[in-house]
Specification:
Layout: H1 3-21, H2 30-41, H3 47-72, H4 78-97, H5 102-118
Length: 135
């Protein structure tokens, strides 16, 4: 295997592993997930607590959304749930854009897309708004 191929395989493996780490859900220690995300995004010491706070806020909003739907009983309105989840994700990206460099934000979006593309959520539905980009 040549050096370029090895580097590509390693980069894809890191992104694949990071996809699960980019979200607060899943197993494992939240502190270790944050440390892994910090490495993947090349976060500075100043950025780490800011990003962690933003992602914890997103997690809390998602949990509240899920808990609200569960408490309502009956059949959930999946379209409304998806719209709320999309809005929470967009708000998180907007907050992160004030903390991360454009390159770091792009890496985060790539990790997030990989997580949703290969996770149980599936790819975004046709016509879903694109994630905002930073110039």
């Amino acid at each position: 295997m040549n050096a370029l191929t090895k580097a590509s395989v390693l980069a894809l493996a890191a992104l694949g592993a990071g996809a699960a780490l980019a979200q607060n859900g899943g197993g494992g220690n939240p502190a270790s997930r944050m440390e892994n995300l910090a490495v993947l995004l090349d976060l500075t010491e100043a950025q780490k607590p800011q990003v962690e706070s933003i992602l914890q806020g997103e997690h809390a909003q998602m949990k509240a959304l899920f808990d609200q739907a569960k408490a309502a009983g009956g059949k959930p309105d999946f379209q409304a749930m998806h719209a709320a989840r999309t809005q929470i994700n967009q708000d998180t990206l907007e907050k992160l854009s004030g903390v991360l460099s454009p390159v770091q934000l792009k890496k985060f979006q790539t990790l997030q897309q990989m997580h949703h593309g290969f996770g149980h959520h599936g790819p975004p539905p046709p016509g879903a708004p694109a994630a905002p980009t930073s110039n």
